[in-house]
Amino acid sequence: MAKFLFSLRNVPDDEAEEVRALLSANDIPFYETSAGNWGISTPAIWLEDEAESERARRLISDYQVERAKTQRAAYEQMRSEGKTKTLFDAVKEQPLRVVFLVLFIGLILYFTVKPFLDLAG
Questions:
Q1: Per DSSP, which regions of the chain are E strands?
Q2: Are residues 31 and 48 in contact, defined by beta-carbon separation less than 8 angstroms?
């Protein structure tokens, strides 16, 4: 029977590809499911053989520890070089979007708080 191994929802393409390569390199049979036409299903990697579950989980766990280290180092390098994106950069790149989002958040806050203010007054 198939066994769920790894969710692909919100996983970067390079990480998903590396997980696929890791399983293939270790001769662990697997298949994938997509999110479906409406994106409501679970995109995931499933093991064909449940007996491989422990070994596959160990491999992926080790891989994720190493990936976290490399990604953290890459982020620190970008940060030290001043290449990380800040809020100010986002405002410079898309000022209208930022203004729209701030107005939208204000509107939501207004309609959330207004009934309570009406009760107090």
A1: 3-7, 30-33, 44-47
A2: yes
pTM of the model: 0.71
Same domain, yes or no, for 104 and 78? no
Over residues 40-90, the pLDDT tens digits come to 999 999 999 999 999 999 999 999 999 999 999 999 999 999 888 888 988
Count structural domains, the chain.
2
Which tokens is 68 given? 């976290």
Structural domain span for residue 26:
1-84
Name the CA radius of gyration of the chain, rounded. 22
DSSP helix, strand, coil percent of the chain (3-state; round to 5): 65, 10, 25
Residue with tokens 């982020």: 75
Structure tokens at 71: 């990604």
The residues, any chain, with a CB within 8 Å of residue 66's CB and separated by 6 or more, are none
Q: Which 3 state secondary structure label does DSSP give 82?
A: coil
